[in-house]
Amino acid sequence: MNIAFIGVGNVGAPLVDHLQRLGHQVTIAARDPQSSTVQAALQRNPQLAVAPPLAAVEAATVVFLATPFAANEAALAGVKTALTDKILVDCTNPVGPNLAHGLHSTQAGAEFVQGLVPAAKVVKAFTIYGYENFDDPAYPGYGDLKPAMLLAGNDAIAKQTVADFCQALGWEPVDVGGLAMALHLEHMTLLWIQMARVQGVGPGFVWARLSR
Ligand SMILES: NC(=O)c1ccc[n+]([C@@H]2O[C@H](COP(=O)([O-])OP(=O)(O)OC[C@H]3O[C@@H](n4cnc5c(N)ncnc54)[C@H](OP(=O)(O)O)[C@@H]3O)[C@@H](O)[C@H]2O)c1
């Protein structure tokens, strides 16, 4: 599949690398090809392509957004029309001061993103853990049980496409419902950050789903 990435920092860099190695055509939508994050991603995986944002998004079937939440509006402004009917994987989190929800829990960040690009099919995924787990999702010793990747979105086919990525990357995709449910995922993110980075548990834990 042809995939474009807007933002290849902590979150984007491991995902571009793994998705390219899975056989996808992955292009960094770079506002500045010389930026340190773009150069680091290329150093890690020279097979990645780089193109200006509009060209990269126009050529893509799926676009990942992995920018600071405050940068989302600027990052999407030039590619809004090109995103029409395309899947936009929202990896961003609105994190406010003192680890409060950045939109005061009145609206999911993913719904805010959807408002910026109304014609795109936004799916929230790759958000509820720290980037270390996107780099290495292996939790050996649990048999067939895989770490859970919770995702939300309004378009069933778009969600299935993202669920397929999750599975290929080593996660059990768990569909939690429509895009409004992303608000709860964003609160899970805040909980994960509190535990991992504030309380000192460390980043090497995720959640899994047990069903019967
Ligand atoms: N860090 C985590 O563990 C984690 C986990 C889950 C979700 N998230 C969420 O994922 C998002 C990215 O976090 P991160 O830690 O990967 O950030 P990061 O390391 O700071 O990387 C941000 C990336 O966004 C790019 N960028 C910044 N402003 C932009 C703009 N206006 N237009 C286009 N690209 C722009 C940067 O490019 P330049 O290098 O060119 O500036 C860089 O590649 C955030 O919303 C965060 O809340 C983070």
Brief descriptors of the model:
8 helices, globular, alpha/beta, Rossmann fold, 212 residues, single chain, eight-stranded mixed β-sheet, binds NADP nicotinamide-adenine-dinucleotide phosphate
Please outline what is shown here:
By secondary structure, the chain is an alpha/beta fold.
Characterise the protein shown here:
This protein is α/β, with parallel strands linked by helices and 212 residues long. It has one domain: NAD(P)-binding Rossmann-like Domain (Rossmann fold, 3-Layer(aba) Sandwich), CATH 3.40.50.720. It has helices at 12-21, 36-44, 53-59, 72-77, 109-116, 131-135, 156-168, 182-198, and strands spanning 2-6, 25-29, 49-51, 62-65, 87-90, 121-124, 148-153, 172-175. The protein has an eight-stranded mixed sheet with strand order 3-2-1-4-5-6-7-8, sandwiched between helices. β5 (87-90), α5 and β6 (121-124) form a beta-alpha-beta unit. Bound molecules: NADP nicotinamide-adenine-dinucleotide phosphate (NAP). NADP nicotinamide-adenine-dinucleotide phosphate binds next to α2 and α4.
Q: Summarize the amount of helix as a percent range.
A: 25-40%
In terms of structural class, how would the helical and strand content be classed? alpha/beta
| CATH top level assignment | Alpha Beta
Separate helix tally:
8
CATH architecture: 3-Layer(aba) Sandwich
Would you identify the CATH H-level superfamily? NAD(P)-binding Rossmann-like Domain
